[in-house]
Amino acid sequence: xxxxxxxSLWILLLIAAISYPTSLLAKSDxxxxxxxxxxxxxxxxxxxSWYEATLSSIKDGGNGVATITTTKPSYLIYTYNNAIHGFxxxxxxxxxxxxxxxxxxxxxxxDVLLKADTTHTPDFxxxxxxNSGPWxxxxxxxxxxxxxxxxxxxxxxxxxxxxxxTQVPNKWKGECxxxxxFNSTMCNKKLIGARFFNKGIKAHxxxxxxxxxxxxxxxxxxxxxxxxxxxxxxxxxSCFGYARGSARGxxxxxxIAMYKAMRDDTFYASDVxxxxxxxxxxxxxxxxLSLGNTASNFYDDPIAIASxxxxxxxxxxxxxxxxxxxxxxxxxxxxxLATYCxxxxxxx
Length: 348
Prior knowledge:
By secondary structure, this protein is an alpha/beta fold. The chain folds into 2 domains: 21-110; 114-343, CATH 3.40.50.200. Helix content is 24%, strand content 24%. The strands form 4 sheets. A 6-stranded parallel beta sheet has the order 7-10-6-13-15-16, with helices on both faces. Strands 2-3-1-4 form a 4-stranded antiparallel beta sheet, with helices on both faces. Strands 11-12-5-14 form a 4-stranded antiparallel beta sheet. Residues 1-26 form the signal peptide.
């Protein structure tokens, strides 16, 4: 077999580079890529290996051939198993263009920045301590597992004590992941799980320093939404002595699992989808998404698509539609079967 001439290889690579516009050789961005699993070659043991090989093929010059290898580094940020079929990866415009022409590619969306989207509500809903109504009928949400994709949780809060809670249901498959200033012993029969996801934001900001690399909440949003959803009874609660009374969540006997995907009021869709992906496999009953983006079309919103995947698994999805003052509330998730809530107010 004849040996390839190194000089001729350099000429071919130069021609390949010249044949693409300069715009395609720009810096990389993070993309969420949907793939058709039925197109996976039989040689691969699983779709994760297939994705890695596909990315290696385009990173190595775009030959378009996915081959099995164990020696090359992984270019994947996330592999998604449940929320969507696909992955998140950092790709240049040229690499994305090459990927679009490979077998199995369905679609891609640019990883987008999300924003976090707050108590007489129990009275409005008829939740009271009488012997009739939604609370006693549902036994106060006993053994319902609520997963929240948010900014984390402050486990020491009195709302997350497990007084009066029964044993954790056998259907729960999740875990309490240790990290900075947060260890697994901080979970209990109320707060039964905690995970954190930040590979997406790290891919966007590689030099970012994570001082709290754990599920602990440094923003307050996730602790707030968790206590609203399923906070345990706290007697003598007040705001600097005002409005003193007993605080409790909407389902005080429900369980809480936190999936931290936010840092400093910032989410990236790639991290949120990874959180939803895990929540589905952990055995969730309810998924709370108090976040949103500016996508106006369902097919442009990977969070909405992941919400549908959760609902197909029998998970009730509660999503926010925004709280932007006098501006119209909106969310691409509203086009799904999820239950959503928005706030609009005016001074007129």
